[in-house]
Design goal:
The complex is a heterotrimer of chains A (about 300), B (about 450) and C (about 325). With about 300 residues, chain A is an alpha+beta fold. Chain A is about 35% helix and about 10% strand. Chain A has 11 helices and 9 strands. In chain A, helix 2 crosses helix 3 and helix 2 packs antiparallel against helix 4. Chain A starts with a helix and ends with a helix. Chain C is mainly alpha-helical. Chain C has 2 domains: about 120 residues, no CATH class; about 160 residues, no CATH class. A two-stranded antiparallel sheet of chain C has the order 2-3. In chain C, helix 4 runs antiparallel to helix 14. The chains are: A alpha+beta (about 300), B alpha/beta (about 450), C mainly alpha (about 325). Chains in contact: A-B, A-C, B-C.
């Protein structure tokens, strides 16, 4: 009995040792020689493998950046400037400072602002619903509210607000990888500057219809009146296809356009309350869903 | 009795309006004529605001190879050229015409007199079909004149006229065959001449014995036309299934029916061809069935294109208070409308009003791999697999499993015991795969 | 008026449902259940009831307490697992062992894979095989029919006909000599033999099978190819040496073959999807069953054969596609 136990132990150990030796030699034989800097760069990356940089994963990005020898147009949105500086140090390169970005939902067609006229009964994917029909509110540009963006977000930075029926961006978690921008069949999400103290101004609508039909479906649609274009002193607002667009690179966050907008389609976030002028004309503009979106 | 072999389902027929004779619906006060009523590129608008138009006048011109002319269905003044919602709720350009007294364009003969003599030559027939905007009235609205032009190297030997009407509820083709049988046969003879074929088969499912008997008797006076009764099975009205049922030939995957030497046209198209060629009448009206369990008086109407669907529903006795869905087309392949205010198009074969409980979907549960979807798929596909592949976004695999062969007949979702929206996902997968294929071709 | 609904076509459904299918199977199991009550009496009733209750309860608890999801016990699939597991054990099995079997069947073979529709192996068979390997003595003590109707413990037991055959052949006896020790075929057809609860009566199982065929719950390929391949393979062996190999009719009627071919191998979730695939699957089950019965250590091979073939199902599904419409036939 004792012998058999001993025999088993010896046999197993021998098999283990043999395997280890074989494995060692095979590993030596088939060793792939790589630039060691790739590993170093990869180690400094966040390893979220989100694809926000445009490459298949962090490894692919590290390979690309080492091979390229320069950091032009290569950026890890998850790591931000710190990580890129670190990578630059490893490679002895110069990293460009990039302004931090954030995903912005450009639709405010909540249940209240754009009441449903039809009921949708089908699979909860925006991609299919977009092919099928215009949307519960009838707005052919607005959010379908089925959450393809939420599914696409790997950072838990999006959730569906049950009250408004719209996806909501969690500011602290969003790293602007751009997955939601790609996932949305209606291209409602946009990556914009995060802004100092999270202050942002943007047109919260993507409806390209003329004023009347747009307003028919949604209280807070951009009607393409062009008042904001005239109000802007920095030439940052452009009116195209009945839709105003604020260029975030030109915008100086002066808030003049916000006051002008007749439908409250332009949202301002995280600004201090306005001083009420003596004649009381100016009031603070409420942007209902946007307030919650930055909390 | 003949039928196609693989797959198929038997949904309840519910042909409520089979005995309702075609009524002529009054001309609407305002007609909404969309410029994209056919498969292909939308037509180019020729009129402008304030123009006077006559019934049958060309108002939008074919603007590409796959496109079709559109004629004014009414007489009146162009009120506006504006985007209106189409069947899916998206905006499409349309010509809105305020109607006045009905005056037909010169040269059109609107009377009911039957014109039997076919005087035009082959080329003239195709030219006229093209000019007068005839498209396939079975639902796909493919421009008919393109079907008539046989590609080089191919040979047409048989014309098939589709009188199957396999969709439940719909009866517009059935009524047309009963009431305009002779015109359909003359139209068939015209199409035969245009194609240069000597044989035509009319396929009708045997749930319409009166239409089979009527056309069989009439067809004795026409050389080469025969009427065939088919066993009832959905989707027999699909082009490929009908060819299989009547001739036993299979259209190769990804190819057109002409590969088998067959050209398929709907009975409605045959009638439209007769009207266009013999009477110079453009395609400006069609038969539309208004039916369903939520319809008070199921009827068949002869309707001018551009009439708002709400007027048809009104005429059929209004709506039931428990209305769940308004569908353009049949219950298996039709499109649920977002609003009853959309106009009748060239391809609108029926308006189906469904009760809530009838149209409500089943609760979705796990796929139990019962393989019912495979056994009913008329194209021999694996719907459960295609759904899964689309869901996990493996489009390459979906393509190699022939997702593009799917004809969207809906048999899989109809039969699924787990209530899974198989066709919804397959459709999504198809759109993604065809996008990939297009991109590949571009490179 | 309420809002209109929009969804993709089709807009009509044939209103079958998973639960209708599952309860249909339960109905199809009733004849065999009644036969088992008739022959094995009280023990059979207790085992069947206990297995069903255990399975349903375990599924409910796992779904609500561990997975925190909506419970699906009303779809009847747990009931089927319970009945089938009960059908596969002797009527005097200790209840605590039965409970372990149910736990393995529902907990391990079904819920850990994601519930109904996702399990690669037949849950009841996994439960049965687990019990057979863990408690070989209790699982092979077969109470004799009728004699034990009112007995719950200390039943008079005897071997199954397959067991008699295996034992005899090992003792160098020949088949013709053994025939006298085996029950005659009429008794086997009716079920008046020792064995697991549900497997004894071929007649009752066939009635259930025809009911399921009529209701389109199962399709013909699997049972037919399974039974035919068993008959053919056993027949060939019998022709080669009638002294060593018993005639094929015995194989058809003995043991759990009917139960396996009609109720277990045809389980939708764990069987192939296409007709050709099903034929291959049934054929494989048949060959393996006979191989295990004739050449293996166990007298009965149905459970193992079906479980082994279950493992090949993904491969079969990959290899055997339905006939595509318009498939371009390659010439030469």
């Amino acid at each position: 009995m004792n012998n058999s136990i001993l025999f088993a132990v010896i046999a197993l150990s021998a098999i283990g040792a043999m395997s280890a030796i074989i494995l060692y030699f095979v590993a030596q034989k088939f060793k792939v020689i790589e630039d060691p800097r790739i590993d170093e760069v990869e180690d400094s990356l966040p390893k979220a493998n989100c694809g926000g940089c445009g490459y298949a994963g962090c490894r692919a990005f590290a390979e690309k950046i080492v091979k390229n020898g320069s950091m032009d147009s290569l950026n890890c949105p998850v790591g931000g400037n710190d990580v890129m500086a670190q990578v630059a140090q490893i490679l002895g390169l110069q990293a460009d400072e990039k302004d931090p970005m954030i995903a912005v939902l450009r639709c405010n067609g909540s249940r209240e602002n754009a009441p449903a006229k039809i009921k949708y009964d089908g699979p909860a994917t925006c991609a299919f619903a977009h092919n099928l029909y215009s949307g519960e509110s009838g707005c052919p540009f607005g959010c379908l509210g089925l959450g393809d963006c939420v599914v696409s977000c790997k950072f838990g930075a999006l959730y569906m607000d049950p009250k408004t029926g719209l996806p909501t961006v969690v500011t602290d978690k969003c790293i602007a990888c751009g997955a939601c921008v790609k996932a949305c069949p209606r291209h409602i999400f946009e990556l914009r500057f995060k802004g100092k103290k999270d202050r942002r101004i943007y047109v919260c609508c993507v409806n390209e219809e003329k004023g009347a039909p747009a307003k028919k479906n949604c209280e807070v649609a951009c009607i393409g009146c062009g008042k904001c274009v005239k109000a802007c002193a920095y030439d940052a607002i452009e009116l195209k296809n009945n839709l105003a667009y604020i260029d975030f690179e030109k915008c100086k966050l002066c808030r003049k356009c916000v006051d002008e907008c007749p439908t409250n389609a332009i949202h301002e976030l995280n600004f201090p309350p306005r001083k009420v002028k003596p004649d009381g004309v100016e009031e603070q503009v409420q942007s209902p869903s946007a307030e919650s979106s930055v909390s | 009795m003949k039928t196609f072999k693989a797959g198929g389902v038997h949904p309840p027929e519910n042909k409520f309006s089979a005995d309702a004779a075609i009524e002529i619906l009054p001309i609407p006060k305002r007609a909404y004529v969309l410029t994209s009523q056919h498969l292909g590129i939308p037509a180019t608008i020729l009129v402008k605001r304030g123009d006077d138009v006559k019934t049958g006048q060309l108002i939008a011109k074919s603007s590409g190879f796959i496109s079709a002319n559109i004629h004014s269905p009414v007489t009146g003044k162009v009120f506006k050229i504006e985007d209106v919602i189409d069947q899916s709720g998206y905006k499409r350009p349309a010509i809105i015409i305020d109607t006045t007294e009905d005056i037909w364009e010169d040269g059109i003969e609107p009377s009911d007199k039957i014109e039997r003599e076919i005087t035009l030559s082959r080329e003239e027939i195709i030219k006229r079909i093209n000019e007068l905007g005839v498209v396939g009235l079975g639902g796909a609205t493919f421009p008919t004149h393109i079907k008539m032009m046989i590609p080089e190297g191919k040979n047409a030997e048989l014309l098939i006229i589709n009188g199957v009407e396999c969709e439940p509820y719909l009866t517009s083709d059935h009524r047309l065959m009963l009431e305009k049988g002779e015109q359909i046969l003359i139209g068939t003879a015209i199409l035969m001449k245009a194609l240069g074929v000597s044989k035509a088969m009319i396929g009708i499912e045997n749930n319409k014995p009166d239409a089979i008997a009527h056309l069989s008797i009439l067809s004795e006076g026409f050389k080469g036309i025969s009427v065939h009764a088919l066993k009832v099975k959905y989707p027999q009205g699909g082009e490929k299934q009908l060819i299989k049922a009547l001739t036993g030939r299979e259209v190769p995957s990804g190819k057109l029916p002409i590969e088998t030497g067959c050209v398929v046209n709907n009975v409605g198209t045959a009638f439209a061809v007769y009207e266009a060629v013999q009477k110079r009448k453009p395609l400006i009206e069609r038969v539309v069935t208004v039916t369903g369990k939520a319809a008070k008086k199921p009827s068949n109407f002869m309707v001018r294109i551009g009439t708002p669907i709400s007027e048809l529903i009104e005429k059929a006795g209004g709506i039931h208070e428990n209305l769940g869905k308004v569908i353009s087309g049949g219950p298996m392949m039709g499109k649920a409308l977002t609003s009853p205010e959309v106009p009748v198009l060239k391809g609108t074969s029926g308006i189906l009003l469904m009760l809530k409980e009838e149209s409500a979907r089943e609760k979705i549960s796990n796929c139990i791999r019962c393989a019912k979807c495979i056994s009913v798929c008329p194209m021999g596909l694996e719907p459960y697999l295609l759904e899964k592949l689309t869901f996990i976004e493996n489009y390459e695999q979906a393509e190699s499993q022939r997702i593009l062969d799917c004809m969207e007949c809906g048999s899989c979702h109809y039969t699924c015991p787990a209530g899974r929206p198989l066709l919804d996902y397959i459709r999504l997968g198809k759109s993604k795969v065809s996008f990939l294929v297009r991109n590949r071709k571009k490179q | 008026m309420d809002l209109l609904t929009v969804s993709g076509s089709p807009h009509v459904y044939d209103r079958t449902s998973v639960s209708k299918i599952m309860w249909g199977v339960v109905i199809a199991l009733i004849p065999a259940m009644l036969v088992s009550f008739w022959y094995f009496g009280l023990g059979a009733v207790v085992i069947t009831l206990a297995a069903v209750i255990f399975c349903v309860l375990l599924e409910y608890l796992i779904q609500t307490q561990i997975l925190k999801e909506q419970t699906t016990i009303s779809d009847g699939s747990a009931v089927i697992t319970g009945i089938l597991l009960a059908f596969n054990v002797p009527s005097n099995l200790p209840i605590w062992q039965l409970f372990i079997g149910c736990l393995v069947a529902i907990g391990v073979a079904k819920m850990s894979y994601g519930g109904l529709g996702k399990n690669p192996f037949n849950p009841a068979l996994i439960g049965r095989v687990f019990l057979l390997i863990s408690f070989p003595v209790d699982m092979t003590l077969w109470p004799l029919p009728i004699a034990n109707r009112l007995v719950l413990t200390d039943a008079i037991t005897g071997p199954t006909s397959l067991g008699v055959l295996k034992e005899g052949l090992l003792n160098q006896e020949t088949v013709p000599e053994l025939m006298s020790k085996l029950p005659d075929y009429t008794q086997m057809f009716l079920g008046n033999i020792g064995g697991s609860l549900g497997e004894v009566s071929a007649l009752a199982l066939i009635i259930g099978g025809f009911f399921m065929l009529y209701k389109k719950i199962i399709t013909w390929p699997i049972p037919v190819s399974y039974l035919l391949s068993v008959f053919a393979f056993a027949g060939i062996l019998h022709l080669i040496n009638p002294d060593l190999y018993i005639d094929p009719l015995f194989h058809l009627l003995a043991g759990g073959l009917m139960l396996g071919a009609i109720f277990m191998a045809t389980d939708m979730t764990t069987s192939p999807m296409t007709i050709n695939g099903m034929l291959v699957f049934g054929f494989g089950c048949g060959i393996l069953t006979v191989l295990i019965r004739v050449f293996g250590a166990y007298p009965e091979g149905v459970s193992f054969a079906i479980l082994i073939m279950n493992a090949t199902v993904p491969l079969i599904n990959r290899g055997f596609k339905p006939k595509r419409f318009g498939e371009v036939v390659k010439n030469g």
